[in-house]
């Protein structure tokens, strides 16, 4: 048997110098907007459970409903100093789609207030359609560089799915980190060239959505879609078909697909940290356990054979 991944291990987030645990807490779920209602008490308990279990990296965004406010409440009283905290700009509901310096200053100021902190470890430009405004004169990047010089933020990054934009960000040599999502997991590894480029330019990589919207959570992905994501067209969704194939494989191999999916990302040393969301302390504990679960050494070779079929 192989040892499960040590989720409390830390890696450096590229040139930022920030050390993050290889498992991070994604803040969308506790916002109560993306995946269903969550109370303040449950959200606070979820964050504190993650901290108690040794997770030191937490990511959030103004887009995620009540997430920033709840994380601020959870970390208030002494926990903040032990956490690497990232939030985003460009997707605040009040200034959504605005990537100007003015909107960025306002968004970061609002995030600082909600998070109950006077600094943000990493600020990410979030989901821009292009980089013309964000990287241009009086754009978001100029504002973030100014805030970094002031010590208000410690590192700057870009979080977007478009690989062309991420490549431009890396090549600009003005980014400390990138956040890629849905593109490095058991279903798809199209982000691999980005990982190589980021390593070459000393840009840290954060990997989001390793469970592909829950398709790889360990339950039948078709049942998951029908109960939790009914708007997805089962016939047209290629990812669902691949996930179903992998779930069938995991059942025959008698392994936990969630554990395999999470450890697949953690095994990639070009990824500094992998973000996994949670809506309760129980889910946090389950995620940590999946990362630590012992898997047979041979499972990775078996997985590769299963993935190419």
Automatic annotation (TrEMBL):
InterPro entries: AKR, NAD(P)_OxRdtase_dom_sf, NADP_OxRdtase_dom. The lineage of its organism: Bacteria, Bacillati, Chloroflexota, Ktedonobacteria, Ktedonobacterales. This is Oxidoreductase. GO terms for molecular function: oxidoreductase activity. PANTHER family: GH17980P-RELATED (PTHR42686:SF1). Residues 23-304 form the NADP-dependent oxidoreductase domain. GO terms for cellular component: cytosol. It comes from the Bacteria. It comes from Dictyobacter alpinus.
